[in-house]
Amino acid sequence: MVNDVTKKKKKEEQKIEDEFNALLFDYLASNHRRKVEIITKAFNFANHAHKGVERQSGEPYILHPLAVARIACKEIGLGSTSICSALLHDVVEDTDYTVEDIRNLFGDKIAQIVDGLTKISGGIFGDKASAQAENFRKLLLTMSDDIRVILIKIADRLHNMRTLDSLLPAKQYKIAGETLYLYAPLAHRLGLFSIKTELEDLGFKYEHPEEYRHISEKLTTTAPARLYIYEHFAVPLREKLNAMNIKYEMKDRMKSVYSIWNKMNAKGVSFDEIYDIFAVRIIFKSCPGIDEKKRCWDIYSVITDLYRLRPDRIRDWVSRPKANGYQALHVTVMGPDGRWVEVQIRSSKMDEIAEKGFAAHWKYKAHNVEEDTELDKWLGTIQEILENPNPNALDFLDMIKLNLFAAEIFVFTPKGDIKTLPQGATALDFAYELHTNIGNQCIGAKVNHKLVPLSHKMNSGDQVEILTSRSQSPQPEWLNFITTAKARTKIEIALRKKRREKIKNGEDIIAEFLKKSGIDGDISVLDRIMSYFDCEKKEDLYYAVASHLVELPDSAKKLLKGKSDNVILHYMKQAYKVALRKQEDAKEKLPEILETPDEIDLKKTYILRETGNKRNYAVAECCHPIPGDGVMGFINDDKRIIVHKRSCPIAIKLQTSFGKRIISCEWASSPTLSFPVTLEIRGIDSMGILNQISQAITNFSVNIRKISLETKDGLFEGMVEILVHDVEDVQRLSNILLKLKGVKNVKRVD
Which one of 102, 315, 423, 617 is at 20 to 30 Å from 14 when CA atoms are compared? Predict the structure, then answer.
């Protein structure tokens, strides 16, 4: 036994030494200055601090900081300061050492980064995610001060995702949900394309294991056919490019499993109907004295001389890079096999920035003075939002996330200046992008010289002139159609200020009203007036009075007698309640649970049971899961299990915000209860098609709740609401409907 322990210990020590040597090899292979001594010192310190501690997988804990440091070095391209910070990132949180100890041994900069990582580990990224907005604010403050904090945090999350197998299913759902909701968008915004893709795929793998396996198998099966198409496309192109005497690399880039699944869901198509599963990437070597932009267009000319261009699929991110620094020229052409093929053209510098993002961008910026990038402007926007954060932690998180993962459009001012905004941005968003005062006083806009309302959605290339009025001020309904975090922040600040002014005005009106009636405005009197008007807080009362949502009678004594039966007053109260209601995210309406839930054990999988007409769970109205769907459970305040599809956006948000309330669930076999499902059916219109569809559904022995069909230009589309037992019912019925002449597409919609 002693020998076994000794052998295990020696094996672990050898593995630790091998990993450290691999880290040094990665570092010495980079372009950074050789600071091996301080990296060795940081490793020895961390190794000593974590000695004897194991991860849940049973491995020595030090292997985790080593892996994070390797990701930071090799995959993100960071230097010795970041490598040391990665090695030390858990020391302060998990051991008795302090930030001061780190500062004394390694200096201010490493101590500052480790301190930033320690602060956010228990914040929006930890178990107390929904407790307070201040934790997330700390992260963003540190991020905008030194971006390396969030880069190391992303490296930390990537390694956690790579080693997620050792955790319980409920913990896996929580971490996978957080990753898809926040980390992948952050990696995207910081230009870390390969890391963003891997985070998405790993998150998807744990959220939807069956779908992940199915698409992965399909990719493997169809690989030879794709390789043939690629080679057939590439051979004549290589001949032309070789004649140009440029150094280049051509390769095929596979679409990720997650993005394929996303496209299948968004378009309601099968795997076989996704035509852009791979793209061709051409990376040419940058040469001094040769303009990279011109070289991109030279290669574009060669491609379009060979193959027919699809004009609506040209993406010029060379002239105008994306907000995360991404530069490339994308073009789609018809290949020799009759398939559309996307070609991505970029220089080696552009490629490094695309893969390693922010770190590579700054490496090049150090040698070449450039104007501020869109990424710098985004960090500036983060600083603006931080000045006045929303007091609600989850709203604050959503506000930041608004612009993390949005596609960009480019809009022109009347003078020809370009502004970058997320896709779907409105004229009001543009107004706030120009200046807060312009947004606050905006009454409309002229887009391409045509008058449009504030809610008008803009397109790339639009020229926009904002119209203002000094009498205008932000309105609550503006929150319904703005899309940028900056606009939302500024509107909420203005509305809060306006509300405070109204409350002060209402307080003065009430005080004057009571004084006229000769009554002291003590707490008991205020309580009775609040009760009379159905107000829960005195601030609500003051606001309602100042806004004329309620009317004070001639004498205060009427208020103190008791509640009024005045019908008009009743409607005023209702209007008051509506006016005070805060703009919130759509929340699921929970159906009544007809059975006391079972004992809940987060370490075990909760079985979703039916007993007669009763069940031990409730179905979330936001996504309508049915037996057979991949689901997870959320424990609400009443200790009831609310079942969501794992793909539901609200479920992903719950995983991010309420990790300790997430539980893994499985459907019990042989469901007897029926669940509502809506099918969308499309096809070619013909006489009696509605009758054929309804007859097929009736013959399948399911109840039809509602059916509607519309025809236009020889095509039809319709919605059918039915009651089914499980996913198999839906699949079998869909197959039956697809056999009907004229029916081309059947898909389930939430």
Answer: 102
- In this structure, the strands spanning 610-611 and 614-615 are antiparallel
- Across the strands, what pairs with 446? 451, 465
Q: How far apart are CA 190 and CA 196, in angstroms?
A: 9
Going from the N-terminus, what domains does the chain have, and what CATH number goes with each?
Answer: 19-207 (1.10.3210.10), 209-367 (3.30.460.10), 492-580 (no CATH), 586-673 (no CATH), 675-749 (3.30.70.260)
* Residue 93 annotated as catalytic: yes
Q: Nearest Cα to 294, choosing from 318, 330, 311?
A: 318
Find out whether 36 and 27 touch, Cβ atoms under 8 Å. Answer: yes
What are 409-430's pLDDT values in tens digits?
A: 778 888 877 787 877 889 999 9
Continuous segment of H or E residues that includes residue 645: strand 641-645
534: left (phi over 0), alpha (psi -120 to 50) or beta: left
Among 12, 26, 59, 93, the one annotated catalytic: 93
Residue 277 and residue 271: Cα distance in Å, rounded? Answer: 9
CA distance 505 to 485: 30
Tokens of 385: 């939002």
Which residue in 12, 94, 146, 398 is the catalytic one? Answer: 94
Helix, strand or coil, per DSSP, at residue 558: helix
Distance CA 692, CA 698 (A): 10
From CA 113, how far away is CA 110, in angstroms rounded? 5
Phi-psi region of 236 (alpha: psi -120 to 50; beta: other; left: phi over 0): alpha
**Do 355 and 365 touch, CB atoms closer than 8 A?**
no
Nearest-angstrom CA–CA distance, 53 and 33: 32
Confidence category of residue 598, pLDDT binned at 50, 70, 90: low
User: Is there a contact between 443 and 525 (Cβ–Cβ < 8 Å)?
Assistant: no
* Phi, psi (degrees; rounded to nearest 5) at 716: -130, 155
pTM as predicted: 0.68
CA distance 695 to 701: 10
Residues 67, 73: contact at Cβ < 8 Å?
no
**Strand spans (E) along 263-387:** 278-284, 308-309, 315-316, 329-334, 340-347
| Max intra-chain CA distance, the chain | 98
In the chain, % helix, strand, coil (3-state, to 5) comes to 50, 15, 30
433 given a catalytic annotation: no
Instruction: Give the gyration radius of the chain's Cα atoms.
Output: 30
CA 742 to chain CA mean position, Å: 38
Buried b / exposed e along 594-611 (16+ C-beta atoms within 10 A): eeebeeeebeeebebebe
For 283-320, what is each residue's pLDDT tens digit? 999 877 788 999 999 999 999 999 999 888 888 988 88
